[in-house]
Amino acid sequence: MAQDDDSFLVFVHLLINRFANLNLYYLAIIVILPYNNPRKINKMIIILHSISFKNLRFFLIPLLIIACNNSPTSPDEEIHEEIKLVPQGIGKFTFDQYKPLADTPITVHTYLPDSTIKNIPVVFVMHGANRDANNYCIDWVEPAREYNFLVVCPEINENQFPGSGGYNLGGMYDGNILIDSTRWTFALIEPIFEYLKQEGAITVDRYGIYGHSAGSQFVHRFALFTQPHNANVFIAANAGWYTMTDFSEVFPYGFKNSPMTEDKMKPKFGLDLVILLGENDTDPNASSLRKTEEAMRQGKHRFERGHSFYTKAKSMADSLETEFKWTKVTVPEVGHSNFGMAPAAAKLLYDILKN
Asked: Cβ neighbours of residue 206 under 8 Å, at least 6 residues apart?
């Protein structure tokens, strides 16, 4: 019943975020629970996107009942229906096909708006410190429908990849010891993409990757310290702190005592790396904001630290006389919110991936 529960959560999440009406929330629960079928609930998600709030309040009950009863399927038919790796709507699968980390299988959540689209672009969405990949995937349902993306949300489990070292820093170190790069957490992303191609779930050769908060930390370090050959755009949104392009600052706050060298860094400035910042993410007392001496040197809050990261990188690229393709984009009236940042990120990804 896990996928049924996920489908129901998407539907409720959309009601809350789009219509912000608690009465509709309870109404949806009453109507949907008897049917609890992921394919039928996905139909209702499509309906939600196609009607206005004004119309919704008058027609919700009949619409839901019609959606639930349209093309009825018997239990036997559902049992024998072919199960796809990535079904239309929401889904998830277990990934254990990368041999160096096969002993730590992960759950990968997906959202596919339309299974009939050929060459649908692929966007990886990296969750925050709560490791709530399913919630992040739900936050991206509306942007995915608007721009027709397959959203892929790996869940980097806290038990398997503990602490900020296991996730935000990509599992590069065990204590103070740099481990083999094949066992870094970063190393999971490219094999997941290749597995999706191998299984026929996708046909494209490139993907974009976005992360928010702790996921943003993952994404910018993934871009800097690995060679993601299939990724052509990286979006780091609202990171709490960064690995600065500074060889005098000790890792993880800078490059000192890390695998990075100037020669390795030069081509990194040619990546399509976007620093995406919510203009209201300015709380210097945010509970999850790192306040070490090294982090405070980057700025008082996330918005300021993002500017510092970009400015420092631009300065290094200029000093090395090398191409600089990174961009910095701010999002008005949005604070520390993945749901709020997703539409702006999706537009950026669409503009780059369509070319």
From this structure: 122, 230, 231, 232, 353
